[in-house]
Design brief:
- The complex is a heterodimer.
- By secondary structure, chain A is α+β, with helices and mostly antiparallel strands.
- Chain A contains 24 helices and 21 strands.
- Chain A has five domains: 3-140, Four Helix Bundle (Hemerythrin (Met), subunit A) (Up-down Bundle); 149-286, ACT domain (Alpha-Beta Plaits, 2-Layer Sandwich), CATH 3.30.70; 314-370; 377-550, 2-Layer Sandwich (Heat Shock Protein 90); 555-689, SH3 Domains (SH3 type barrels, Roll).
- The two termini of chain A are 59 Å apart.
- The relative contact order of chain A is 0.05.
- Chain B starts with 6 loop residues before the first strand and ends in a 5-residue tail after the last helix.
- Classes of the chains: A alpha+beta, B alpha/beta.
- The A-B interface holds A 157, 162, 167-169, 172-173, 184-186, 188, 191-195, 197, 199-200, 202-204, 206 and B 10, 13-14, 16-17, 20-21, 24, 40-42, 44-46, 48-50, 52-53, 56, 73, 76-79, 82.
Chain lengths: 690, 88
């Protein structure tokens, strides 16, 4: 696939997601003009870009959909439930059409049937059949209040233009859709005579007067796929400074423009006249200055618009992160060497470098961060579909969509979340009849909530359904041999048994859930992201799934400590405080594994004994208080070294069974430090104390 | 010279260029494009160049037999009048 086509596919993808979100939003909150506008523009853009590639099937279909949307937007037809449903189907169908077109395949019989069917429905929804929809389209655009401007577009094809594979005539035609082309002047001045010509190079250019309410960005977008292959100036036709600059740049252009009826061009001073003027007085020089400043301003304005959004292959960012990681390690080495040499200047430079590396690292990490809302919104539709299938009424709410999370994490967490949502609706929430019988409102409530908490991101899925069947889970687990018959498991532990493989309590298998594969996969997926998942449930009141995810994957801020002869890293964001384990505490402990910290009990974990470290004769012992979720544990360690930027390196398979260590890192000295897996250590501690 | 192709685009433009050049060396140019249904900008540009060359050396240049399809393309390209193309 060539680059333009790839861009096109991505663009369509974005527009369709946009459509879906707008439709679902309207399904929920009723029709609003803004969403309607967005909907129309999305379809319009798809039609336009597909047209540039000559994908006739897509254009044909999008055209009808666009017409209906245009009527809806203008209030000629009312958008009802049925229509939204049709548009949702149209959205899916458009995707199919685009996929086929991109692969260069023709419609198969089934798609063709679907195509005809949808077209018929869409057409039947139109208030009256329209013979000349394109023109009407242009008119409605013009009719919109204010905003209509006369634009001057100056276009020169760069010599390699034809290699782009785009047809400039198609692009020119697109202006007829976007507005009204008042003047189209073909600039052939640069075309050489036959003998000097290279027929595969482009020499031609255009000056266009274009009346439309489209914005600068919208006009520029027409050239999206050829931006690098043309020299483009877009400005309002009344902008004399730009026109002057344009004419100054190209000999004879002014005359051609005047001849072709570009009225403003006659007000532009001809090159000769200007040269004289410039020579004459300094005053003129000064008067010219503001205009050139204006041009510069325009240029920068254009630049910012361009940089508004940028698509980058994620592997490029990954490789940057990797390189930064290596630099962090290298710099740690420099710092250490500076300390060893007692070289203050070197030490200072290394510190500055380290600060800058930190900034770059944060910057790169931020590139990968996206708001979860964009991705989570698609769940709305899935929830709707599932609810319809199982005849339940669901009130679905997304809270904290603005929370930012690593894009890769968002993508990978999507499937597990979808699965859990389906479960909640299928098993958790009761049917409206059942709900009425127990005195609940017939509408079930499902909520997806996201918020940051102590260096992690928490995602909660809660419902107000019947809760998990505790006894049933336990019975099944015993039958499957997962737990002993005479256990004394806490409720929470029993609920968490549903993450074990092959345990489904659904009485009958529906096509949505209940096959017993799933929750274990969900858990595995989440753990692969270094996250955790927990369940809490109350019979008759509902269930709450809590997922905790780390903010980032590759580098963490760590805290370097030593226990015995080994150095360890504790993720900094989990640390609450460090205290010295002095004689007073030691006396208080009296052989127990907890202390009284400001009147609350703090369980302790002796790292030395846990990892079988050797006894050391360190002068003082320390406690690092770490928190994860609602749990706090004090880690008993020997020495504290302080903050350390930690590049996480995976450990080999040999270590896969070591509980409590999630990875390793290389220190500046070349030594290896192990990174604690705090949640796992806590789990161990809690289990031990039961 | 008569073109006996259905379409003429950037893919064929180099061969067309050679033909035009040979034609130009012989004298006046009259291109019969009645068989054509599709052209693109590279060809239009080449025709513009041919016309220019003819004007400079006082030769006649003519495009004949454009069908409505192709005339529309000339029109859309803004070069219909420049090249003197009419729908026949």
């Amino acid at each position: 696939m060539n680059e333009e086509l790839e861009l096109f596919v991505e663009d369509v993808d974005e527009q369709l997601t946009f459509m879906e979100n707008a439709l679902v939003a309207m399904q929920e909150n009723g029709v609003d003009d803004e969403s309607l506008g967005a909907l129309f523009r999305a379809m319009h853009t798809i039609k336009g870009t597909a047209g540039m590639f000559g994908f006739d099937d897509v254009v044909g279909f999008a055209h009808v959909a666009e017409n209906l949307l245009s009527d809806v937007r203008d209030g000629k037809v009312e958008l009802n439930e049925e229509m939204i449903e049709t548009f949702l189907q149209s959205k899916d169908h458009t995707q199919t059409l685009v996929d086929l077109a991109v692969d260069g395949e023709v419609l198969d019989a089934k798609t063709q049937a679907k195509n005809d069917h949808l077209l018929a429905i869409l057409k039947s929804m139109l208030p009256d059949a329209k013979k000349e929809p394109l023109k009407i389209d242009a008119e409605t655009l013009e009719d919109e209040e204010g905003g209509e401007k006369l634009w001057h577009i100056s276009l020169r094809l760069k010599p390699h233009f034809f290699a782009s594979g785009m047809d400039i005539i198609n692009i020119l035609n697109f202006f007829n859709i976007l507005g009204e082309v008042k003047k189209l002047l073909c600039i052939d001045t640069n075309i050489p005579t036959l003998k000097d010509m290279n027929p595969t190079e482009a020499y031609i250019g255009y000056e266009i007067l274009f009346l439309s309410d489209a914005s600068y960005a919208e006009i520029e977008e027409v050239f999206e796929f050829v931006m690098d292959d043309v020299v483009l100036e877009i400005f309002e036709a009344t902008d004399m400074d730009m026109l002057q600059a344009l004419c100054d740049n190209e000999e004879g252009l002014r005359e051609e423009l005047v001849f072709a009826g570009f009225d403003n061009a006659s007000r532009v001073r001809s090159t000769d006249a200007r040269e004289e003027e410039v020579q004459k007085t300094e005053v003129k020089e000064i008067s010219k200055e503001p205009s050139s400043k204006k041009e510069i301003k325009k240029e920068t304005k254009k630049e910012t618009k361009k940089s508004f959004s940028l698509r980058v292959d994620s592997s490029k960012i990954d490789s940057l992160i990797n390189q930064i990681s290596e630099m962090v390690i290298a710099n740690a080495k420099v710092t250490q060497r500076a300390d060893a040499l007692d070289d203050n200047e070197l030490s200072e430079s290394a510190t500055i470098l380290s600060d800058m590396l930190e900034e770059i690292r944060t910057g790169i990490m931020n590139i990968r961060m996206v708001q979860v809302g964009d991705s989570f919104n698609k769940f709305k539709r899935i929830v709707n579909d599932v609810a319809k299938k199982v005849d339940k009424e669901i009130d679905f709410e997304i809270v904290g969509g603005e929370t930012e999370l690593d894009k890769m994490v968002v993508e990978k967490i999507s499937d597990p979340l979808m699965h859990m949502l389906r479960n909640s609706i299928d098993h958790g929430v009761e049917t409206p009849q059942e709900r009425k019988a127990v005195g609940k409102s017939p509408k079930g409530h499902v909520r997806l909530k996201t918020y940051p908490d102590a260096g992690t991101i928490v995602i909660e899925i809660s419902d107000d359904g019947r809760g998990l069947p505790r006894d049933k889970i336990l019975a099944k687990a015993i039958a499957n041999g997962l737990v002993e018959e005479n256990n004394n498991l806490s409720d929470k532990e029993i609920y968490n048994l549903i993450f074990a493989a092959g345990l489904s309590t659904a009485e009958k298998v529906s096509d949505i859930s209940g096959r017993g594969v799933g929750m274990d996969v969900v858990k595995r997926n989440i753990e692969a992201l270094r996250g955790t998942v927990e369940i809490d449930s109350k019979s008759g009141e509902g269930s709450l799934f809590t997922i905790r995810l780390p903010l980032t994957l590759a580098i963490i801020d760590g805290f370097l400590i030593q226990s015995g002869n080994t150095k360890y890293i504790i993720p900094l964001e989990m640390i609450q405080e460090c205290i010295e384990l002095d004689a007073h505490y030691k006396k208080e402990m009296d052989g127990n594994e907890f202390i009284n910290l400001r009147d609350s009990m703090l369980p302790l974990l002796d790292v030395r004994s846990y990892f079988n470290e050797q006894e050391t004769q360190s002068e003082r012992e320390n406690i690092v208080v770490v928190r994860f979720g609602e749990y706090k544990v004090g880690m008993m360690v020997d020495e504290l070294f302080g903050e350390f930027q930690t590049v996480i390196k995976p450990l080999g398979e040999v270590f896969s069974n070591v509980v409590g260590v999630s990875g390793g890192t290389i220190l500046g000295s070349g030594e290896i430090a192990l990174i604690f897996d705090i949640p796992k250590l806590m789990e161990h501690k809690i289990r031990e104390s039961l | 010279m008569k073109i006996d192709k259905d379409e003429l685009t950037i893919y064929e433009v180099e061969a067309f260029y050679e033909e035009l050049l040979a034609e130009f060396d012989k004298g006046d140019i009259a291109v019969d494009i009645s068989s054509l249904n599709k052209i693109d900008m590279s060809v239009i540009q080449l025709l513009l160049s041919a016309k220019k060359s003819c004007q400079e050396s006082s030769k006649a240049f003519q495009i004949i037999g454009a069908n409505s399809e192709v005339t529309k393309i000339f029109q859309e390209s803004g070069c219909q009048t420049l090249l003197g193309v009419t729908d026949e």
